[in-house]
Structure formats: C-alpha cells, structure tokens
Amino acid sequence: MEFAFNRPRADDSYQSNVGAVRMRSLIEWRAYAWISVGALLGANLRYLLSKIVTRLTDAAFPWGTLLINATGSLILGFFLVWTTERVLANPMWRWLVAIGFCGSYTTFSGYAYETMACLEQGQWMLFASNILANNLLCLGAVVVGGVVARAI
C-alpha cells in the first residue's frame, strides 16, 4: 500500500538533514542590522520633526504627520527610482533607506488615527482636508521624487 508520506519524491536531489531545518534566507542578519539602523534614524527624525512642527503650527490640523508622510514619500520615490533605474545599488541600501528609514519615518497609522479623531469630533472639513492632503501630497511627492531621480 502506498501513502503520500512513503512515496518517493519527484526530486530527491536535495541534501536531506533529518530533523534540521535550514533557514538561511529567513535569518539573514545583515538585512536585519541595516533595517534596524535605518529604522532608528527614521523614527528619531520623525519624532524630532513632529515636535518642531507641533510648536510652530496650529494643533487642530495634523501638520506634522502630513509633512513627515509627504517628505518620506518624496525620499522613497527618489530613492527607489534612482536605485532601480540610474545606479546599481547594493541591496543593503534598500534595506537601510526604503525599509528601515522610510518605513519608520512615515506614519500611516498616525495619519489614520488623526483622521479618525477628526471624524469622531465632527470636524468634517479637517477630516476631508487631511484625507485629500495626505493622499494627494504623498502621491505627488513620490512622482516628484521619481522625476528628480530620473533627471539626475
């Protein structure tokens, strides 16, 4: 009688280590290290800029989050177009800048929470303005970043 677990496999050319699972691609320490460095820089810069913008602007509208998301989108658009179309970049740079820095610098969760707070408080104009401003400025910033990268 033949069952699925005792049938020969179609390709038995792999090296079998009984009981050992090779997770080389999952635990690539260099990637985690570069992502962590970028995240450390991005999160701290986001915190610093949000404090500065909060002191300089009206607290009714989330200007800090808007500025951070727009500049992060600009950086990401520039970086990804530049490193995929203009230069050959080591994958380390994508880990550092795109995933680490921009991932921790931009804040979609902050944008979502602040937008929900405007809705709950009945501030319809701020609610709509925040949605439009974040989406239009961030998409526009990615496009501008790509255009600048292609122009260099």
Question: What do these coordinates show?
Answer:
This protein is 71% helix and 0% strand. The protein contains five helices and no strands. Mean pLDDT is 87; it is low at 1-5. It has one domain (29-151). By secondary structure, it is mainly alpha-helical.
Percentage beta strand: under 5%
Estimate the helix proportion, in percent.
over 70%
**Strand count, sense and closure of the main sheet?**
none
How far apart the termini lie comes to 68 Å
Question: What Rg, in angstroms, do the CA atoms define?
Answer: 23 Å
The overall pLDDT average reads 87
Discrete helix count = 5
Tally of domains: 1
Q: Helices and strands: which structural class?
A: mainly alpha
Write the element-wise H/E pattern from the N-terminal end onward: HHHHH
Characterize the overall form.
globular
By DSSP, the count of extended strands is 0
Architecture blueprint of SSEs:
Layout: H1 29-56, H2 63-86, H3 91-105, H4 108-120, H5 124-151
Helix pairs in contact: 1-2, 1-3, 2-3, 2-5, 4-5
Give a quick precis of the structure.
The chain is mainly alpha-helical. The chain contains 5 helices and no strands. Helix 4 packs antiparallel against helix 5.
Supply database-style keywords.
single chain; 152 residues; globular; disordered N terminus
